[in-house]
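Let's practice the habit of predicting before peeking. Look at the sequence and jot down your guess about where helices and strands might fall. Then scroll down.
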Amino acid sequence: MEIIFDKEAINNAVDAILDHKNHDVIRIDGTMGAGKTTLISALCKRMGVTETTSSPTFSLVNTYKSPQGAIYHFDFYRLENSNEAIDFGVEEYFESGNICLLEWAEIISEHLPLSYDHYQLEMINASTRKLKQVIK
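Done guessing? Here is the structure:
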């Protein structure tokens, strides 16, 4: 799956993610400024989150309420090492059965579950992005 979109068509990317969803853990990789948080915010909105969403850069995880239950949004960018994720219980979140949306997950790659949905978000230009499903 690969889709090219701009901010006005971000819901096309969200729909593609939801249409291809196989797991509760969804990893979205991309460079700084690629739009990972913007995409995750749109995804949360589509899943019924009504509260404001934001990057959990300093808290590591934000919890949002949705009709399906809790949605956990992780940002691992500030971790010094992957074991810090274990220290705050990331494995319990992954095993909770709730949606877990991950930014900068390459930092904790050895602690990721065996199965998860994986996407690469790439900047084409200032307003256009490409989302590609990563097949393991």
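How did you do? Residues 11 and 42 are 7 Å apart (CA to CA).
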